[in-house]
Specification:
This protein is mainly alpha-helical and 137 residues long. Helices cover 69% and strands 3% of the residues. The protein contains 4 helices and 2 strands. This is Integral membrane protein.
Length: 137
């Protein structure tokens, strides 16, 4: 029983650590560029450049790899999803149209699905067994 409680606390700690780290990585890669670029034809782009988003994804991939390697599956999936969702909400909440909530919802769904798949692929490639259930413990 004590071992199970310690494992649960470790998993919850990993979720919290990954959520905070993910929000910090968002701020580092995307938080400082808040203006849209106006093109000569009047259209706007941004506020993020492609290299910023690629940097965010690669940094998060390294963090998810670490968490999965340590068997912190919940941290890899739920922590990353929570961190991205909170960061997107905070970053986009000044949108006057109110449509930012759709984007935040899409970030939440997309990051959950993608990190779950990436975590499963990493665990499979490394031969890491999945979490044990009460029946197999």
């Amino acid at each position: 029983m004590r071992q199970r409680r310690m494992n649960l606390l470790a998993q919850l700690g990993a979720v919290l650590l990954m959520a905070v780290a993910t929000a910090a990585v968002w701020a580092a890669w995307l938080g400082w560029d808040q203006h849209r670029d106006v093109q000569p034809d009047g259209s706007t782009t941004g506020p993020y450049e492609a290299w910023q988003v690629i940097g965010l994804v690669l940094t998060l991939l390294a963090a998810v790899y670490w968490a999965t390697s340590k068997r912190y599956f919940a941290g890899a999936v739920l922590g990353t999803t929570a961190g991205l969702t909170v960061a997107a909400f905070y970053d986009w909440s000044d949108d006057s149209s109110g449509l930012f909530m759709i984007g935040v919802g899409l970030v939440a769904i997309g990051s959950f699905v993608v990190t779950a798949v990436v975590t499963a692929v990493i665990a499979s490639a490394k031969g890491i067994p999945g979490p044990r259930t009460a029946a197999t413990a």
